[in-house]
Amino acid sequence: MKHKFTFVLESENIVLDAGARSYNKILRLLKAGKFTEAETLALKKLNKDPFFYYQLSLARFGQKNFEGAANAAQDFFNHQDSKELHMPEYYFLAHATRVYAESLYRSNQIEELIGLETMLKRLSPGKRYKNDIVWTKIYLGTALISKNKTLDGIYFLILAKNIAIKENNESAVNVIDSILENLEDALS
User: Fold this and answer.
1) Residue 26: inside a domain
2) Same domain, yes or no, for 62 and 89?
């Protein structure tokens, strides 16, 4: 009898061969809030491994350069799709998708944000990244509503709310309830 196993790696340090030290250094810089230094190092290391686009996105997001963060996240996805990455990139897709969604939302790139709908279907809601998927669905739902795709937007907000309730994520539930209440007031 065959059985399918799915799993997610649970490690802060990953194996990137020659880029591992740089990855860990950038991670420390991001945690310390040194986003400009992290961006500079990530840019230098892009030729070693395209995974550094993910860290570049985080560094730019930390600097509130949302358009730059979205572009770097998109580059990460493009390389992931072409299988050029040398590490288990699926581990980071949910978080990169959330950074991408929030960056698009904050830089008012609503049309691009709506395109996340197909990307969300590929993400496995691993326990560690359920929060990222919830927030991505909140941004997507809000973007759809703003483009008069109200039923589609409500659908994603309800999906996000169900996950948030299950995970006891009160802040996400409160945000979703507020969006839905404002929508109800606007429609009545």
Assistant:
1) yes
2) yes
Residue 129 has pLDDT above 50, yes or no: yes
Q: Are residues 68 and 134 in the same domain?
A: no
Contact 140, 149 (CB under 8 A): no
Range of the structural domain that residue 188 is part of:
128-188
Which amino acid would we find at residue 130?
K
**What integer pLDDT is reported at residue 66 of this predicted model?**
94
Count the domains in the chain: 2
Lowest mean pLDDT among 19-23, 96-100, 101-105, 160-164: 19-23
Quickly list DSSP for 37-66.
Answer: HHHHHHHHHTTT-TTHHHHHHHHHHHTT-H
Whether residue 75 is contained in a domain is answered as yes
